[in-house]
Amino acid sequence: MENKQEFTLKNIENKKDWNSFVNENDFSFYSFLQSWEWWEVQKDLWKDIVRFWIFDQNTQIWSMLCIKIRAKRGNYIFIPHGPLVIDTMDFYNVFHDVLPELIKLWLKEWFDFIRCNSSQINTKINQKNFLNLWFRDAPMHEHVEDTHLLDITISEEDLLSNMKKWDRYYINRAIKEWVIIEIGNSKKQRDILTIMHTKHSNRQNGKATYSGFSEKFIDSIYKNFWDAITTISASHEWQVESILMTIRFWKMCVYYIAASDIKHPKFSPNYLCQWEAIKKAKSDWCSVYNFWWVSPDDNPNHPIAGVTKFKRKFAGSDYSLLHAQDYVLSNKYWLNYLIETIRRKKRWYYYKKPI
User: Smaller CB count within 10 Å for the chain: N or C?
Assistant: First the structure.
């Protein structure tokens, strides 16, 4: 590491200032998990949050939203898809210099470890850099690490042509069969999404059961991201067969919650519903459509292999973030390590190795 620099940490209490840091910088990867609105969602779920800006003299170089999680298996600080640091600064040098102050702060509050689900790409170099900071691979993921991104700055014709012929057929067939698309965030749409999502999450998915979002969580998402959310449903013969929610944050639109009850697989409304979501994101001046969570490979036994296969049909490319990294603060961490390791193996999860 380079010689230690003097940085100033500042807790931010202004939404406009916080979100503008992302809007004004061209980060390689970012998501709404570092937005002010996500803090409000966590607040509704009775979680404590701290937000740091870091300054090099008078220049802001870093933002970091941290969630304080207290559980019987251990208390920890979680940093989702962050910290974000401007490209003129070295991420690891800054982290190296501010980490002692953060550790001192969180030891006073009796936290057992720090978990960083960073926005750094999944490479051996990045893994080694975290290791040099005394981080280690977490036993379990916390948020999305493997995602699928689609560049939507190109024309609709090119977006369609990049898909396989048979997948385009599903979209055109659904249109010919008079599948009805509804776009909006009415209470009716929200209720349908919640009910279908709950029903969908209770189904058996191979070796694992999908753990769905609670009604309280979905309500909080709508309340706090209200002007950035789009709900789209696809119906045939007055029956909703597919519904999804997207969240926009700056130039990225994330396909976040979805559910389906397909009665007509020959022209599966899922395809048209997803296509309409992509077109809506494009019309909202987004440049990237983020399909969110995908499996790290094409293994049909992975818990989310089915939905991953569907997402990859819309072209685009996979984007892999470094697996979550833990910094141990107390021996209680190893109890959490054991519990999460058992949980991961039970659910059949595994992670992509860095390249």
Answer: C
Element (H, E) at 189: helix 187-201
Using CA atoms, how far apart are residues 267 and 253, in angstroms rounded to an integer? 26
Q: Is residue 353 part of a domain?
A: no
Across 24-45, b (16+ Cβ under 10 Å) vs e yields ebebebbbbbbbbbbbbbbeee
Domain identity same for 257 and 117: no
Coil/strand/helix, residue 74 = coil
What pLDDT was estimated at residue 2? 52
The closest of 210, 266, 273 to 245, measured between CA atoms, is 273
pLDDT tens for each residue of 175-213: 999 999 999 999 999 999 999 998 877 664 444 445 789
Q: List the CATH number of the domain containing 288.
A: 3.40.630.30
The model carries a pTM of 0.93
Q: What is the pLDDT of residue 208?
A: 42
Domain that holds residue 327: 7-143+322-347
